[in-house]
Amino acid sequence: MPLEPKPAVFPRIRKAVTFYKVTSVITGVMLLLLCTEMVLKYVFHVELYGFGNAGFLHFAPMIETVSGWESTGDGANLSTGILIAHGWFYVVYLFACFQLWSLMRWQFPKFLLLALGGIIPLLSFFLEVRVAREVETYLARREAAATDPVEAHA
């Protein structure tokens, strides 16, 4: 029989699931931006720049040189910024996954599935809905069982 969370940690679980939901959406959006940026860079050979001579936001073409593809843009390379931001948000997302996983006392494969949400495009959005519903249903069932002694023995 797997271990179950104690009722005393239910408020912490509610905070953890809220934190997980927020980080899941942010990480999912950042991953979609990163995938879009990769397609632009490696298929269409352009990079996104900002605050340069060409304007607030602009796509700069990349040219092929002997050493590889090089960007011709000036200003801040927003493509690199998206890459770095996703990396840091993924670390925060992993922390949120670990926190929820440990409070719920789930098996280790569940943590691996949650961690994949920040790597596989769109998965974090599906997991966010499914996991939040699962946790909220579980907490409601446990709280109902604690207040109804007949249901607790069923």
Q: If you had to describe this structure to a student in words, what would you say it looks like?
A:
The protein is α+β, with helices and mostly antiparallel strands. The chain has one domain (8-146). It is 64% helix and 16% strand. It contains five helices and four strands. It has helices spanning 10-42, 78-104, 108-116, 123-147, 149-152; strands at residues 46-52, 55-65, 68-71, 76-77. It has a four-stranded antiparallel β-sheet. Helix 1 runs antiparallel to helix 2 (78-104), helix 1 (10-42) packs antiparallel against helix 4 and helix 2 (78-104) packs antiparallel against helix 3. The chain is elongated and about 75 Å long.
Number of structural units classed as domains:
1
How many E strands? Answer: 4
Distance between the termini: 16 Å
Largest sheet: 4 strands, antiparallel
Strand content: 15-25%
How do the strands of the widest beta sheet line up side by side?
3-2-1-4
Query: What structural class is derived from the secondary structure elements?
Result: alpha+beta
Order of helices and strands: HEEEEHHHH
Give the integer mean of the pLDDT values: 89
Q: What's the multimeric state?
A: single chain
Query: Which residues sit in consecutive blocks of at least 5 with pLDDT less than 50?
Result: none
Helix content: 55-70%
Shape: elongated
Number of helical stretches of at least 4 residues: 5
Rg result: 22 Å
Show the helix and strand layout.
Elements: H1 10-42, E1 46-52, E2 55-65, E3 68-71, E4 76-77, H2 78-104, H3 108-116, H4 123-147, H5 149-152
Antiparallel strand pairs: 1-2, 1-4, 2-3
